[in-house]
Amino acid sequence: MSGHSKWHSIKHKKAATDSKRGRAFTKLIKEITIAARIGGGDTEANSRLRKAISDAKALNMPADNIKRAIMKGTGELEGGQLEEVNYEGYGPGGVAMIVQAVTDNRNRTVSEIRHMFSKNGGNMAEAGSVSWMFHKKGYIVIEKSKADEETLMTLAIDAGADDFNSEQSGYEITTPLESFDAVLNAVKKKGIEPITAEISMIPQNYVKVEGKNAQQVVKLMETLDDHDDVQHVYANFDIEEAELAEAIS
Fold first, then answer.
1. Quick check: 209 and 180 in contact, CB under 8 A?
2. How far is 17 from 232, CA to CA, in rounded Å?
3. Could you read off the pLDDT of 90-135 as tens digits, one per residue?
4. How many other CB atoms are found less than 10 A from the CB of residue 45?
5. Cβ neighbours, 10 Å, residue 41
6. Please, how many CA atoms are within 13 Å of residue 37, restricted to the half-sphere of its CB?
7. What angle do CA 74, 79, 82 make, to 5 degrees?
8. Spatial separation of the C-alpha atoms in residues 143 and 127, rounded to whole Å
9. Are 124 and 111 in contact (CB under 8 A)?
10. pLDDT digits (tens, 9 = 90+) for 36-84
């Protein structure tokens, strides 16, 4: 998974800066709204909503914003009708990509996403073309300075994780969907705060890219991530961490 945890670490730091906070708020409000619409407004019974609210609080989103987003989702307040849409495509070097978006205008969003792919050396694909290459799993990334490797690995596996990797930039833990909350709670009870903790699409295989292709993949990922409708971008790139850091800097 070379470069994968590094990407999440960089995304986390970017989202925390003032220049990115407004965009992060917009994305989180959409996530809270759609989570409440699909699973209801009870956080005890809706783990997706619970996670979205936790992420919003971590960015110091005002409680009133969170409450309004929930009420829009449950229909207690009027608001534009949001829906989830997934797009699939290929980036430079044959990198498979899944783009998850929340939008109130499908036609606008698909047009803009298609333009981003074509402008950055990629192309959109038919539904199902690349999704089979990914598995839906819990995904947790922890900075190496936060925990001892052996202790953390034992803790995660005992709590239900199915994989543990040590990368240069951090520890990666993957879990079955049903074990995600248990593993995350076990980690947090030890006072360890993850960089990333989410339900993610984990690639089954990775495509090695370097040089110009690597730079284009990073540019495409950043462009998609910055779109207001895009909630997540998943890709099976394998870029050396030094090259990834250079492309992003």
1. no
2. 18
3. 999 999 999 999 999 999 999 999 999 999 999 999 999 999 999 9
4. 10
5. 18
6. 20
7. 75
8. 35
9. no
10. 999 999 998 998 899 899 989 988 899 999 999 999 999 888 876 889 9
SS3 call for 199: strand
How far apart, in whole angstroms, are the C-alpha atoms of residue 152 and residue 248? 29
Answer for the pair 198, 146: CB distance below 8 angstroms, yes or no: no
* Residue 193 DSSP label: P
Token duo for residue 196:
């990333």
pTM, to two decimals: 0.84
Residue 90: how many other CB atoms lie within 10 Å? 19
CA 21 to chain centre: 16
Record the tokens describing residue 160, joined without a space: 């239900």
247 CB-side CA count, 13 A: 23
